[in-house]
From TrEMBL:
The chain holds residues 314 to 592 of 592 of the full protein. It comes from Pseudoduganella chitinolytica. This is EAL domain-containing protein. Residues 24-279 form the EAL domain. It comes from the Bacteria.
Length: 279
């Protein structure tokens, strides 16, 4: 068929496409069911101040354990949620769960540190986003300052001015904002000035490129130094993501990076384990 259809047409019967489409459809149905059934959980990864060594807060990362499929990676099911119109419901679940957990920890007298949640670009662009966010804060009674939203540069690719205005209103509510995976998108450092974010998270790919021997002229080192210098001069806090090695940590300390997060400290942990280690 593909041949007969000629050059400028799609090939309909690529076997791998069919398998993928079927799998995506199945995952979509499974995710729809999971949203109301306790299969989703948040795990918490600690972040630390590099000068004092103190815990500054955590990032909540969603986990899905399906009864037969097992652990489905977030990168996979978030893409599915976006494509099938489930991202609004998933994001609401994440924020409600994170806020409820903060309240529970507060009741137990544990540290009132902040929790960060990830928000995908598609979710942020939805009209209901601000009202949903406000309702979650009001219903749980969490102080807006204790919630941080991590967004990626991709948020600004669409409707830049409207997106910036929305972020400013969210910032005015008191909610803190971080730019996630910084350096992987298309925005320039000077563009940062327009972004109403308190925090810049340097993408882990640059930390990885620091290399074992801390090559000070290597590509990773150059970018990490530039982001720290420029970001701090604009009054932003800089967090290094994906720190796995002592040498990376030493380099970041020498560059006066503010905070770090990564397997060197801890992977994301179930809430109870996080509390018993860091509460
Ligand atoms: P992210 O927000 O940049 O999160 C960091 C990812 O790196 C997490 O993967 C985390 O487990 C992993 N990580 C942390 N430390 C290290 C390290 O030292 N080395 C390495 N190699 N990896 C490390 P995870 O949990 O699989 O999440 C992947 C991505 O999925 C996240 O990237 C985020 O973009 C998205 N995601 C996760 N949870 C949510 C959520 O609740 N909502 C939305 N919209 N997206 C989420
Ligand atoms: Mg993140
Ligand atoms: Mg990241
Ligand atoms: Mg990422």
């Amino acid at each position: 068929l593909a041949k007969a259809a000629g050059k400028n047409t799609f090939r309909f019967f690529e076997p791998h496409m069919n398998v993928d489409a079927v799998q995506r459809q199945q995952l979509q149905n499974a995710l729809r069911a999971a949203l109301g059934s306790g299969q989703l959980a948040l795990h918490y990864q600690p972040k630390f101040d590099l000068r004092s060594g103190q815990l500054t807060g955590s990032e909540a990362l969603v986990r899905w354990h399906h009864p037969t499929l097992g652990h489905v990676p977030p990168a996979r099911f978030i893409a599915i949620a976006e494509d099938f119109g489930l991202i609004g419901a998933l994001g609401r679940w994440v924020r409600e769960a994170a806020c409820a957990q903060m309240v529970a920890w507060q009741r137990q007298g544990r540290a009132a540190a902040h929790t960060a949640v990830n928000v995908s670009a598609q979710e942020l662009h939805q009209n209901s986003f601000e009202a949903d966010l406000l309702r979650t804060l009001q219903e749980t009674g969490v102080a807006p300052e204790r919630l941080q939203l991590e967004i990626t540069e991709g948020v600004l690719l669409r409707d830049t001015d409207a997106a910036l205005a929305k972020l400013s209103r969210i910032r005015d509510m008191g909610v803190r904002l971080a730019i996630d995976d910084f350096g992987t998108g298309y925005s320039s450092l000077s563009y940062l000035r327009r972004l109403p974010v308190d925090t810049i998270k340097i993408d882990q790919s640059f930390i990885r490129e620091l290399g074992r021997d801390n090559d000070i002229d290597g590509a990773g080192a150059v970018i990490v130094r530039a982001v720290i210098g420029m970001g701090q001069s604009m009054g932003r806090r800089i967090v290094a993501e994906g720190v796995e090695a002592q040498a990376e940590l030493d380099f970041l300390r020498r560059q006066d990076c503010d905070e770090a997060q990564g397997y060197w400290f801890s992977a994301a942990l179930p809430a109870a384990e996080f509390a018993s280690r860091y509460g």
